[in-house]
Amino acid sequence: MTTLMPPFRLHRPASLAEAVATLSATPGGRPLAGGTDLLVNLRRGMGAPPALVDLTSINGLDRIDVGADGLVLGATVDLARLGDDPRVRAGWPALAQAAAAVAGPTHREAATLGGNLCQDTRCVFVNQSEWWRAANSYCLKVRGDTCHVVKKSERCYAVYAGDVAPALLVLGATVETAGRDGTRHLPLADLFREEGRTHLALEPGEVVTAIRVPPPDGASTGYRKVRVRDSIDFPLAGIAMSLRRSGDGLAGLRVALTGIASAPVLVPDLDTMLGRPWAEIAGPLAEAVRKGCNAVKTTVATPKYRRRVSAAAAVALGAELWAGQEESAA
Ligand SMILES: Cc1cc2nc3c(=O)[nH]c(=O)nc-3n(C[C@H](O)[C@H](O)[C@H](O)COP(=O)(O)OP(=O)(O)OC[C@H]3O[C@@H](n4cnc5c(N)ncnc54)[C@H](O)[C@@H]3O)c2cc1C
């Protein structure tokens, strides 16, 4: 059975003020960027907004500026450009690697940074056709009243599977938004909530306008992703890391995970490893990552696999960054 795209009015404002005003005046209206997440979901019957407000004609919203204060990225920068930019690749490799790991090449030409951060959460019980979901009594996330993953749960466990957010988390990025109450600046972690239906802390009509990333701090950074099809797929697990060493001891470590909870997760309590050599870090790092994974049965792979593969990928990435720091010091 084919589901048709629901009817909506498409606005293409030329200014941010007009976009915010249109969204604020249209309850239920949604921002549209590349459309690679939103349009697919609407086609599958996940929502019927009365209006879509296309942000891609807004002047200056696609900037990549590099300066003494670091990197400023407009929300409509496309991921192909972000992944290819030589300045981003040199200064913030985790970010370039994460952008280049999203979906496939044609997606990345259209997909934007803002859309990537704000993409919807996913679950094997919701990213299905309308007839499949109807036949399975729907679920908490769309039209139903039961979570099929965690029975009797009052919250939705759909998973956040954006690749770029964990990279930005380990890089200490902040988000700029615009809404009817003006401009806000918030740490990236505060954009997300651990609830599959309401995973973004944005007010109605509020849009992400820019991301600010501090200048490189001497750490090596990287992103590793595990997926079913390497050519085009969401992460079953994704790990971003920023690692700095001083001689033979660890001087700084930040690790963030995606694909394992309803929000990207910054792994806590890594400071206990500071000062230790790599041989004493790998085991505790794997344990910390395993503990940081709140995976439940939301994907085709089991939670156990996602926990184990996250830990293994973190250790492999850590070993690579550790060795790279030695080479760059030599
Ligand atoms: C086959 C397939 C594979 C995919 N694989 C991956 C993958 O590997 N990794 C991954 O991360 N994603 C993946 N995606 C999802 C999607 O393509 C990307 O996340 C993409 O970056 C979304 O960006 P977009 O500009 O197309 O967003 P859109 O689809 O335009 O928007 C996505 C959501 O964000 C909102 N939004 C957009 N811009 C803003 C803004 N500035 N402020 C506030 N809200 C905004 C929209 O209202 C919508 O809810 C895949 C999608 C498909 C169809």
Automatic annotation (TrEMBL):
Cited InterPro entries: 4hydrxbenzoyl-CoA_Rdtase_bsu, CO_DH_flav_C, CO_DH_flav_C_dom_sf, Diverse_Substr_Oxidored, FAD-bd_PCMH, FAD-bd_PCMH-like_sf, FAD-bd_PCMH_sub1, FAD-bd_PCMH_sub2
FAD-binding PCMH-type domain: residues covered: 3-218
Keywords: FAD, Flavoprotein, Oxidoreductase
Coiled-coil stretches: none
UniProt-listed Pfam families: FAD_binding_5 (PF00941)
SMART domains: CO_deh_flav_C (SM01092)
GO MF assignments: FAD binding; oxidoreductase activity
Gene3D superfamilies on file: 3.30.465.10, CO dehydrogenase flavoprotein, C-terminal domain, Uridine Diphospho-n-acetylenolpyruvylglucosamine Reductase, domain 2
NCBIfam families, sorted: 4hydrxCoA_B
PANTHER family: XANTHINE DEHYDROGENASE SUBUNIT C-RELATED
Name of this chain's protein: 4-hydroxybenzoyl-CoA reductase subunit beta
